[in-house]
Amino acid sequence: MTVGVKTEEVAEAPLNRETLNQNVLNAEYAVRGKLYQAAVERAATGKNVTYTNVGNPHALGQKPITFMRQVLALVNYPTLIEQPELAAHFPKDAIERAKTYIANTPGGTGAYQDSRGNAYVRQEVADFLTERDGYPAKFEDVYLTDGASQGISLCLFLAIRGRGDGILTPVPQYPLYSASIELRNGTKCSYYLDEECGWGLSIGELERSVKEARSNGVLPRAIVIINPGNPTGQCLTVDNMKEIVRFCVKEKIAILADEVYQTNIYSEGSKFVSFLKVVQDMGEEAKDCQLVSFHTVSKGVVGECGRRGGFFHLHNIPEGVVEQMYKVMSTSLSANVEGMLVVGMMVNPPKVGDESYELYHKETNGTLESLKRRAKMIYDAFSSMRGVSCNPVEGALYCYPNVKIPAEAVEAAEKKGIA
Q1: What is the per-residue DSSP string for 363-388?
Q2: How far apart are CA 223 and CA 338, in angstroms?
């Protein structure tokens, strides 16, 4: 017997809003939401609009790093390598790096690479992690993606089986997480950062969130930690990170460490330390900690958002999970190759003695100092406003003010249905 639907139950059109996946309708992503759309409409009338709804450094005037653009020019047009006058226009180390990438990129930048990423660049990332943290990293644990967002979405996709699975997510947070969790039919388990303590993360608050989730029949599977914070700009201390690791080991919760702003540190006394280093420093007590760490070329002093380059690193993830991860990544065939190469140059920049080093150092230091000045400027501006308070910006690209909205404004918004 054939089972089907009645003719009258079929929608007039194959696709309309009523027949879409309900998870899509439920998801919200304010980064491209109503405020952004209003800005687009304003710009369409010829009015000047500065878009600060998302961290997009080059759109706001941050200059690209010369070395990276030189290497990309050569790998995208390899014929230049053969020109006798090349040395008069490109530094020697840029030429050599381009030759290395050309030799190690099968088919060139226009060809698919391994679904896990170009092997040479993955080794560059592993070497970077080894040098940064002081522990040997293997390229097999490194995966290259179209920005950090793709890797984050992949991990959430693998972890969430349905509404009964929860992801601990900070408030305030980058909307990617709440939207991605909803799209995958999971449950967001909010934990609140403490504004009075510099947007700190207390274990008591994590315990509250986990207890509440379990009382509602939800199993917390992973926790999202954004360090430095987005949009709060705080940097976690090593002691706090150790507390978080102990909590996650005890509660059997995996850590998703969003560390894309690790270069953006401004506050005196603040220092970025990776969760990967902390977990390995802790030794035996953290041996059962499962950790996925994310990084990208879109932030920091690189700011190449349009290249869509990123990576994630797996620590203590079972082989059976890795196999399924590889399978899912294979359905997308390959991340974009330019993004991979920019990742390679981010983690393996010109060194002291290289021809490009002085300019690279000047450009990156100049960008970081500019960001530091602007962070203070924005903090000072917010702090001087009536009804607005703000914590100092320790890192990342954002300042998160507390705005006390007058009761009359709230009432007016409620009347318009936009409160």
Answers
A1: HHHHHHHHHHHHHHHHHHHHHTSTTE
A2: 31
Residues in the chain: 419
| Residue 265 per-residue DSSP state | B
277-303: b (≥16 Cβ within 10 Å) or e: bbbbbbeeebeebbbbbbbbbbbbbbb
**191-240 pLDDT per residue, tens:** 999 998 888 899 999 999 999 999 999 999 999 999 998 888 889 999 99
Measure the N-to-C terminal CA separation of the chain; round to a whole number of Å.
Answer: 53
Any residues with CB less than 8 A from the CB of 166 and at least 6 apart, and which?
186, 187, 188, 189, 213, 218, 219, 220, 221
The torsion defined by the Cα of 136, 137, 140 and 145, in degrees rounded to 10, comes to -170
Structure tokens at 179: 């939207």
Is the pTM here over 0.90, yes or no?
no
How far is Cα 120 from Cα 64, in angstroms, rounded to an integer? 23
Contacts 24+ apart (CB under 8 A), 102-109: 102/74, 102/75, 102/78, 105/75, 105/337, 105/341, 108/75, 108/78, 109/75, 109/76, 109/337, 109/338, 109/341
Q: Which residues, including other chains, have CB under 8 Å from residue 73's CB and lie 6 or more apart?
A: 80
- How far apart, in whole angstroms, are the C-alpha atoms of residue 119 and residue 297? 18
